[in-house]
Amino acid sequence: MVWKYQAAAAMTLGMAALGVQGVTTNYSSTVDPTKLNIPNIPQTTSHDVAAQCQYYQPPFTLNPKEWPTSWEIATSNGMNTSAEFTALYNSIDWTKAPNIQPKTLSAEGGLNLQGYDVQGDKDCWWSASQCTKPKAADVNPDIVQCLEPNTWGLTYDDGPNCSHNAFYDFLEQNQQKASMFYIGSNVIGWPYGAMRGLKDGHHLAGHTWSHKLMTTLTNQEVLAELYFTSKAIKYVTGVTPLHWRPNYEDFIAMGSNGTFNTVGNIVLSHEINNMTMDFAVQNYPAIKKNYKHVVDVATCMNISNPYIEKSITYPTFDQLVSKNGSTVTGSGVSPAASGSSSSMGAQTTVNAALFIAALFGVGASLF
Ligand SMILES: [Zn+2]
């Protein structure tokens, strides 16, 4: 979904023009990310959603006037005209954003690529061309591969959720860190899940507020989706992620792109329900076997500071490997984990693994 990236890129550019400080001062958080306090939730290892969520009460009192409606486009609930969002929107020099019209859906509900000049690909539209490097100046390219060879960047989308403690327990038992792409609506709905994600040492990133197709949205809607997701994560965990990933639908085209066959295991790793959680658990040994290193994206990209706040840091790849030699296992040559195509062997020599869209906020210097 390149145009998503392009929309994202517009956002990135806008945010850069705005300046990170301007974003962060639009809202605040009373949470110290280094001292997260999560009450003991008794059903922590249950796979029974009802049981796990039974006693789950959000620890925050949210002022409904400050938030979009859950699972609706983030301009909902009057956010598009709120003083907070209006100030943010107006602080951005939109003349510097790429001029890309929102894409449309086909009658079948998919992306409508009809009439788009794929060869020219002026929008760097991923869905049309798999473009990941925007043509506009000062727009950050997507992160699509780990820098380190034979490394799998472990990521999960769509959380958090009250029913995922068993899965987080599994990761904890395996001393495994992952990148968690959280949906803003879920962060507000299940804040303990987000808090646990950070407390457990996972790398948090955004995954939009309402899980819409970002390239079909206007600039205002895209900004709201990114902003309120960022605000939600900050409000609940105390950190503001600098990275985000567009939604699953954006990656469907990957299925026909052999290059990313092995990435499917990552892209399809969703925190939606216990079935997908179990799927992720079942596939984990195969990933571990076939890759020398399985790490979160911040680590595999050597991004020690993936948040605006600097109080939470992540090890560099070398630091992690030297600290935990036991993660260095496997041959690095391999057939696929779980039904992926035979291209996985080739992939392992190139790095495989993840697909994060353009940067939210910070300057291109990070990459
Ligand atoms: Zn998703």
Automatic annotation (TrEMBL):
Residues 1-22 form the signal peptide. GO terms for molecular function: chitin deacetylase activity. GO terms for cellular component: membrane. This is NodB homology domain-containing protein. Residues 150-248 form the NodB homology domain. Keywords: Signal. Pfam families: Polysacc_deac_1 (PF01522). GO terms for biological process: carbohydrate metabolic process; fungal-type cell wall biogenesis. PROSITE patterns: NODB (PS51677).
